[in-house]
Design a protein that fits this description.
The structure holds 2 protein chains of 2 kinds.
Chain A lengths: L8 H4 L3 H6 L3 H8 L3 H9 L4 H6 L16 H14 L9 H4 L1 H10 L19 H4 L32 H20 L8 H12 L4 E2 L2 E2 H17 L11 H6 L25 H5 L2
Antiparallel strand pairs in A: 1-2
Helix pairs in contact in A: 8-12, 10-11, 10-12, 11-12
Chain B lengths: L2 E2 L3 E6 L3 H12 L4 E4 L16 H6 L12 E4 L7 E2 L22 E2 L4 H4 L1 H9 L17 H15 L25 H12 L5 E2 L1 E2 L6 E2 L5 E2 L25 H7 L3 E4 L2 E9 L2 E9 L5 E11 L3 H10 L17 E5 L6 E6 L15 E4 L18 E6 L20 H9 L4 E8 L8 E9 L5 E6 L4 H20 L4 E4 L15 E4 L23 E3 L14 H21 L14
Parallel strand pairs in B: 1-14, 2-3, 2-14, 3-11, 4-21, 14-24
Antiparallel strand pairs in B: 4-5, 6-8, 7-17, 9-10, 12-13, 13-14, 15-23, 16-19, 16-22, 17-18, 18-19, 20-21
Helix pairs in contact in B: 1-7, 1-11, 5-11
Classes of the chains: A mainly alpha, B alpha/beta.
Chain lengths: ~280, ~575
């Protein structure tokens, strides 16, 4: 945080990656409470007039959390997405691309609230780990919201009252708990290899906790990370179209009529939806 | 209390290809038509500037919201069915133009074999070839009888294509030349030819040139911008109902289109339909729309459910195998579209460009074009390589064994971006006694009406045909010179994904009222002024997408309705008892 002394909220997130790298500091510090005051101060701190003026022509971002209330949850989410799509020789990772903010906005959206989905009960439990104990239940048993039913084979069904936003909060909690149980340490403070180990446990569905299937949570986390990396920058990820540049994807283009028969791969400077819509 | 409106000649439920064609043809013939659409109004200009992969492909902007109702799904008759809750798991269309607005545009006629599948199978292999419980039958119409209607739909839709060298005979050329072939498609076609197959450029609902159809509607040339499937076309160059039949119906002055109108019952008295009951979804106000003829032209699920909720016809009972409504449910599931993916180390394709109906295809392993004597399935599948234009979110292919996240994933997914080509087999799906639709005993919609329940199990037939297809696709990808080839894996069982958009049957056509619900004009046997048009009429699922067949049958139904109105009643075809199952 020391090197953040002069920054304001608009530029703070640009160094978010370093900010998180330099510390487990964030979460660890917050727990102790020692840094909390400092964080708050930095948010309200105004630079000197000269500094403000010198930033006037720089691109600014007003990213802020609108779903995840707790710093710890967001820090954990950020660290996890970075392991899924890490910074490497190919270019930026999830944090620098803005993926955590993308996920935050998605959770706050209609999608995060399952606004277009069928969310009426009764809800059978989807805790697959419990299903085996339930094998002796008669198959024609009436479903009630408290009944655990054996889900049909290979089901992809979403059978929970939880919205995706809640699912994220529960899933992150579970990751934090697993980290404490396994390594006695907060997830954000773990070595990358240890973080990967936790993520793998989730991916394989090895973690058992109430209400959420860990592999379902992992696939939601992975999918939203990929979406945040590659969706149009209008949604908060894929900052400055850097992920499209890495991939050689041009974004929305009006016509390829004159290029569709070309043999050579054509690399174009990407162009965003904002550019395409022209308003 | 529902407000009773003035009677019209015909009320049409649904505004996709089926409802659009029927409305256009009858309003052209001078009849007063009211078309009811549960979704919102929209026009082609609504799609300008919407090339947004997240919003349309991943967040399903054009897909029906499941907030009010959905389906429930199970594998076996003894299981409890659970609702398909997420929009991503059930991609049915909505809004004016229906599912036809976000179709990709691939166009195939079904085969002469399809229409007489039972007779032709018995003729060539004997009755023993058909397993017990597989409910295939002849359709009550032959390819030759349906051919002029296919031709008419192709002219209206402005299809771009060249004839399949192994296709059935055609009375006309496609109205537009085939789409341009990209290098990837050329590679597919040349490689397939080298190993003795018969590839061709697949026919397309994307326009290869500017085209004006026989109704005077003009479509623009396709720009290969790649935003077709799950999108409305922002150039007006994909054939859809808003570009063709809906404006045709409108300009007659005889067709009134009411959107936000959710039909909840067919009203009937003394064996005749008298109209429909619908709710304005914005105000909750209920209306009764009386009509001489009622046409259900909604999606398969809605057509079936409306009949069941209205207590019309006998719901299929798998125990007795009697009853026709809900019978012969099929569709494209997780056993369809399996094949092989090739990774190319030294070649990169401009695969971010494309169109929904841009691809190479071949029919060598389709229908009964190859000998099934030693094979443990009937029918077959079409092989395709499609260049939709891969979006950035979707295009993250890595060879099997690569982690699906982390450093190595990132590295390889970036390297193989646009170096990955997939060839798949779109396998036919046969109807079985245990796959059907009825009403769910537990789950309800927002009005308290039971949801439609689907019972669907993958069979050995489905798995065997898919396995065969994976092998054939692999041979082609090998011939294409891929460095790494990954075969798709066979699913163990149906996974309750209804995201393939193509689900049919339940009000299936035929000759015998014991086993079919409608005749070959899609007129309900049990209620002669009720026509049920759309995918619900198809008795089995052939090797390719159903749209042209639905289009053709809709023209046939429109002709029947006109005949019915002129002749003031009667069944248009006489029932025939047969040994057909």
């Amino acid at each position: 945080m020391t090197n953040n002394k002069n920054s304001n909220q608009d530029t703070q997130d640009l160094s978010r990656r370093k900010f998180l790298k330099s510390g487990g500091l964030v979460a660890g510090g917050l727990l102790g409470g020692s840094l909390f005051g400092g964080l708050l101060t930095s948010q309200f701190q105004k630079g000197t007039k000269e500094e403000t003026a010198s930033q006037a022509n720089k691109p600014v971002s007003f990213d802020a959390r609108t779903f995840f209330s707790r710093n710890e949850d967001f820090a954990l989410l950020s660290a996890a997405t970075e392991r899924i799509f890490p910074e490497n020789a190919n270019g930026m990772g999830a944090i620098e691309l803005g993926v955590p903010y993308f996920i935050d906005r998605q959770c706050a959206s209609n999608w995060g609230r399952n606004g277009n989905d069928y969310m009426h009960g009764p809800f059978p439990s989807v805790v697959k780990t419990d299903v085996y104990q339930e094998e002796n239940r008669p198959k024609d048993e009436v479903i009630t919201s408290s009944t655990v039913v054996k889900l049909p084979a290979d089901t992809a069904n979403y059978q929970t009252k939880m919205t995706r936003g809640t699912f994220f909060l529960e899933g992150l909690n579970a990751m934090e708990k697993t980290s404490q149980d396994k390594f006695g340490e907060r997830f954000v403070n773990l070595e990358p290899e240890q973080q990967d180990e936790i993520l793998s446990m989730f991916e394989k569905g090895e973690v058992k906790f109430s209400g959420v299937d860990s592999s379902d949570f992992f696939s939601l986390l992975r999918q939203t990370t990929i979406e945040g990396v590659y969706a149009d920058p209008v949604y908060g990820g894929n900052r400055n179209m850097e992920a499209w540049r890495m991939k050689g994807y041009p974004g929305p283009i009006m016509s390829f009529l004159d290029k569709i028969e070309e043999e050579e791969f054509i690399v174009m400077e990407p162009s965003s939806l904002r550019n395409y819509q022209g308003l | 209390m529902a407000k009773k409106l003035d009677k019209v000649d015909v009320v049409v439920v649904g505004s996709g290809w089926a409802g659009g064609i029927v409305s256009a043809e009858l309003s052209k013939a001078g009849y007063q038509v009211v078309m009811l659409e549960r979704g919102k109004d929209q026009t082609r200009s609504d799609f300008i500037g919407v090339k947004d992969e997240l919003r349309y492909t991943n967040r399903h902007e054009m897909i029906e919201k499941l907030t009010g109702d959905t389906i429930t799904s199970r594998v076996s008759i003894g299981d409890a069915a659970l609702p398909v809750r997420l929009q991503k798991d059930m991609n049915t269309g909505t809004d004016l133009g229906g599912g036809s607005m976000h179709w990709a545009g691939s166009v195939y006629r079904w085969r002469s074999y399809d229409f007489e599948i039972r007779s032709k199978t018995i003729e060539r292999y004997g009755e023993g070839k058909i397993p017990e419980g597989m409910q295939i039958r002849d359709w009550g119409i032959t390819y030759d009888e349906l051919e002029p209607y296919y031709a008419k739909w192709e002219q209206t839709a402005g299809i771009s294509g060249e004839p399949d060298p192994l296709g059935d005979k055609r009375s006309n050329e496609y109205p537009n030349p085939p789409m341009l072939a990209s290098p990837a498609i050329k590679l597919f076609k040349e490689s397939a030819k080298e190993i003795g197959l018969h590839p061709y450029q697949m026919a397309s609902g994307n326009m290869s040139q500017t085209y004006t159809n026989p109704d005077g509607e003009t479509l623009n040339q396709c720009m290969f911008c790649s935003f077709c499937t799950m999108y409305g076309c922002d150039f007006g160059s994909k054939s859809d109902p808003l570009a063709t039949v809906i404006p045709t119906a409108r300009k007659t002055g005889n067709c009134e289109i009411r959107t936000n109108s959710l039909v909840r019952r067919v009203i009937h008295k003394d064996g005749k339909a008298t109209g429909v009951l619908y709710t304005d979804t914005r105000t909750g106000q209920e209306f009764e729309q009386p009509a001489d003829v009622v046409v259900l032209a909604a999606f398969t699920f809605s057509n079936n459910r409306l009949l069941m909720l209205s207590d019309i016809g006998e719901i299929y009972n798998p125990e007795t195998r009697k009853g026709t409504i809900g019978r012969n449910f099929t569709g494209q599931f997780n056993s369809t579209f399996l094949g092989a993916t090739g990774f190319f180390n030294d070649k990169k394709f401009n695969y971010y460009m494309g169109a929904g109906g841009l691809g190479g295809a071949l029919s060598d392993y389709d229908a009964d074009l190859f000998d099934h004597t030693d094979l443990d399935f009937i029918h077959g599948g079409g092989i395709e390589l499609r260049q939709y234009g891969d979006g950035a979110i979707k295009n993250n292919f890595v060879p099997k064994g690569t982690p699906t996240w982390g450093e190595e994933f990132k590295e390889k997914s970036l390297f193989y971006a646009f170096r990955t080509l997939t060839v798949w087999y779109s396998a036919a799906v046969m109807p079985w006694w245990h796959n059907y639709m009825d009403l769910d005993p537990t789950y309800k919609d927002e009005f308290g009406d039971p949801l439609l329940r689907i019972t669907n199990k993958l069979t050995e037939q489905d798995k065997n045909i898919a396995k065969f297809g994976i092998e054939k696709c692999t041979e082609i990808v090998e011939a294409m010179g891929a460095d790494i080839i990954d075969q798709d894996e066979l699913p163990d069982q149906f996974n309750h994904g209804y995201d393939g958009m193509h689900y049919i049957g339940g009000v299936a056509m035929g000759e015998d009222p014991e086993t079919s619900a409608v005749n070959n004009y899609l007129q309900l046997w049990e209620m002669e002024n009720l026509f049920v048009v759309g995918g619900s009429a198809l008795p089995h699922f052939s090797s390719h997408h159903p749209t042209p067949t639905i289009g053709a049958l809709s023209y046939r139904a429109a002709e029947g309705i006109e005949k019915y109105l002129k002749e003031k009643g009667g069944l248009l075809t006489k029932p025939k008892s047969s040994v057909n199952a």
